[in-house]
Amino acid sequence: MKIGFIGLGNMGAPMAANLLKAGHEVTGFDVAGVTVEGAATASSAGDAAGGKDAVITMLPDGAILRKVYEEIVPAGAAGSVFIDCSTVDVDSARAAHQMAQAKGLLSVDAPVSGGVGGAAAGTLTFMAGGSKEAFARAEPLFDIMGKKAVHCGDAGAGQSAKICNNMLLGISMIGACEAFALAEKLGLSAQSLFDVVSTSSGSCWSVNTYCPVPGVGPESPADNGYKPGFAAELMLKDLMLSQQAADSVSATTPMGARATELYDEFVAGEGRGRDFSAMIERLKQG
Ligand code: NAD
Questions:
Q1: 120: Cβ below 6 Å to ligand 1?
Q2: Rounded to the nearest whole angstrom, what is the distance from the C-alpha of residue 104 to the centroid of ligand 1?
Q3: Which of 32, 74, 200, 252 has a CA 20 to 30 Å removed from the CA of 81?
């Protein structure tokens, strides 16, 4: 396939590299002038999108996505599928779908889970929203860049799934941090708490797979000085998107709201650039 790839940052560049490795012809564009070895470089986003079978975007936020779509949708070729893998607000995802639909293009919102490591290894999980036809067209590309793609529903369903998942993750990580910080004050070893929780009703990914305490459980950022991993500011971004979405549909998310406040304070303080599980150090400080 001829693929246009717009946004070649930490995630986009390795994803584009995997498409190249699989034998696709990739034309890339990034405002920062980043290039990917083996890919053609376009002079603009419109240039990257023109005449392609598929156009993938991997951009920082919804405002940028809308601006880029204003440029690339008019350049889109008939029969092309537009796949947005950025994490953005649900309204911007739906607006991007509408723009594509008005031009008769197929479109999918397909944010990812798995981080930079997953992007490089081709093991991302895609959460997709859009028509069955659009998803079917995008699926072979998801299979190259990832290990799993879930068709969650219509336009915006991928972003909805992503922010619900990450809101739960933010809340559960704070819960895990609180439990280990409390155990320490009670004189209970982290290893003992892990052995109990990881096989009991408190078990969850934040404990079993990504324990916020060093030397306990499978290797995690805690064992590496809290180098991300998943940076606290990216968790804050997703939590803020979850609260924006909750407001827009009058959903009650008191724990999501509190998690957002705690990560906001953490990122404004010592948390920026650290893994989101470093929240435990803040909680231990009292
Ligand atoms: P990044 O900042 O490294 O990359 C974004 C790229 O987009 C940058 O290279 C930037 O120059 C480019 N860009 C900005 N405006 C542009 C424009 N108008 N035209 C073309 N290029 C433009 O960010 P990232 O870590 O690659 O993340 C990309 C998206 O993936 C974000 O929405 C993020 O929330 C999401 N995400 C990131 C991770 C992660 O671990 N990094 C995990 C899951 C999801």
A1: no
A2: 26
A3: 32
86 CB within 6 A, ligand 1: yes
Catalytic residue among 52, 103, 147, 162: 162
For residue 159, give the H/E element and its range: helix 157-185
Contacts of 40 (CB under 8 A, 6+ apart): 25, 26, 27, 28
Task: Write out pLDDT tens, residues 23-75.
Answer: 999 999 999 999 999 999 999 999 999 999 999 999 999 999 999 999 999 99
> Ligand 1 atom 17: the closest Cα is on which residue?
31
Q: Which of 258, 233, 252, 254 is nearest to 178 (CA)?
A: 258
Residue from 59, 70, 166, 234 to probe ligand 1 pocket by mutation (most atoms less than 8 Å from CB): 59
Contact (CB, 8 A) for 176 and 207:
yes
Best residue among 8, 18, 29, 30 to mutate for probing ligand 1's pocket (most ligand atoms within 8 Å of CB) is 30
284 is catalytic: no
C-alpha distances (whole Å) from 131 to each of 82, 100, 153 are: 12, 12, 8
CB of 130 closer than 6 A to ligand 1? no
CB 232 within 8 Å of CB 263:
yes
Query: pLDDT by residue (tens digit) across 40-50?
Result: 999 999 999 99
The band of 253, judged by pLDDT with boundaries at 50, 70 and 90, is very high
pLDDT at 286 over 80: no
Q: What is the mean pLDDT of residues 74-85?
A: 97
Angle at 179 between CA 173 and CA 184, to 5 degrees: 130
* In contact, 236 and 262? CB cutoff 8 Å: no
Quote the pLDDT of residue 259.
Answer: 98
Label residue 133 exposed, middle or buried (CB < 10 Å: 0-12, 13-18, 19+).
Answer: exposed
